[in-house]
Amino acid sequence: MKTIGFDSAKYIEEQSTYILERVNHYDKLYLEFGGKLVDDKHAKRVLPGFEEDAKIKLLQKLKNQAEILICVYAGDIERNKIRGDYGITYDMDILRLIDELRGYGLLINSVVITRYSGQPATKVFVNKLERRNIKVYKHTEIEDYPVNVEKIVSEDGFGKNEYIETTKPIVVVTAPGPGSGKLATCLNQLYHESQKGQAAGYSKFETFPVWNVPLKHPLNIAYEAATVDLKDVNMIDSFHFDAYGKVAVNYNRDIETFPVIKRIIEKITGKESVYLSPTDMGVNRVGFGIIEDEVVQEASKQEIIRRYFQTICDFKKGTIDEESVNRIKLIMEEVGLQPEDRKVVRPAHNYAKNLQTSSHDPVAVIAIELPDNIIITGRTSSLMNAAAAVILNAVKYLAHISDEIPLLSPLVLERIQGMKTMALHSSMDVLSLNEVLIALSISAVTNPIAQVAYEKLAELDGMQAHSTVMVNKNDEQSLKQLGVEITSAPFYPSENLFYQ
């Protein structure tokens, strides 16, 4: 039984009530949704008990009053920006998001292309959407945004961009990632609503940092670790303290841009803003869902270590800079953490050290922690890679199957290897996790022992694992789909430059 530190039902109830209270002040509320709308795994990890679809459940409570705009920056489409958690490009993620939201019965208004200037790949994406009957709006970049308030709030600024027709009192504005233009889209709509004589408002729904827990609480520090590449830093909201004499936590970008955002809203409405601080703009009630602070603190510390491994691996791959690595190391020191404080790290590396020969290639070993603090390991062999081996070993342990009993016929596995090399002309015949899982599912049809092991796959959800080498993208995605939280040491499995 997993220890719970967060009451998701209480949070959803309080959050929906608070949003509705904010809506009552306006004809229409534009609600900027930060973070992930679907599958918020970071929140699930740092707040044990948080349901990763909590935001969806929240929107379902509001669905009769809400519709959704999805923003994407044209430049992110053009350079094929990847969402790390899914391993897909932003344009593909928008298609995935639309499908998921529709599956929950939520209304998708349109997709908004921000900072659009006729980019070729973006044109193709717009055509794809429109030919599937999805409405698309294109907003151009406004020069000197957001500092030149006079120009921005004029016919030469927001006035040049299209007004997005909406029908519900709550308009949720979301995106596949940061820098997609959510805020600019909200402000654009406020401008046009004001021109039409409508009383529209803006609020921000950002789960982290949590404004009403201490600045140096591990939960808020875990947010800094998660955004280390964005250079986000948590700070005391000085505007909030000056206005109310109360301490609230926000982050540098929101605090730095608050004065100009406040001026833009006041220029649009012709009234003094009701918001005295960036915290005022938020509708975040997640802190009120915490029921066991010690559980949340420990979960947050483990997340910081996971982010440490992710950062040093991303640096090795060349996707982030050295400043991000130095920052994550400082965060680790600030909280007093070592990489070995993650339970699966030492067993994986100790086993690899015992297996090490004179070969220059590191030994690929993965260790996974199962219930009751049991650590199971698996290593790469001539037959299958470490990810496949550790998952087979784990389900055998959970099913109480002896090591001596094979789950999969060696003849079947050899036939799959032969197909890879002879029919598919692959130079890598070692079986991947996905290939072994398919073999296990087929074996389960005729082999009762394999069936028992197959049924244990669901119990791997939420398990922690660590690899002594960087896991390839396909295996990493398969592990994530199983719910296994994998980290890796920053070493490539071989000297090969392409087959990794």
Automatic annotation (TrEMBL):
InterPro entries: DUF1846 (IPR014999), DUF1846_C (IPR048441), DUF1846_N (IPR048496). Gene3D superfamilies: dip2346 domain like, Domain of unknown function (DUF1846), C-terminal subdomain. The keyword Cytoplasm does not apply. Keywords: Hydrolase, Protease. GO terms for biological process: proteolysis. GO terms for molecular function: peptidase activity. Residues 4-335, 340-498 form the DUF1846 domain. It comes from the Bacteria. The keyword Nucleus does not apply. This is ATP-dependent Zn protease. It comes from Enterococcus ratti.
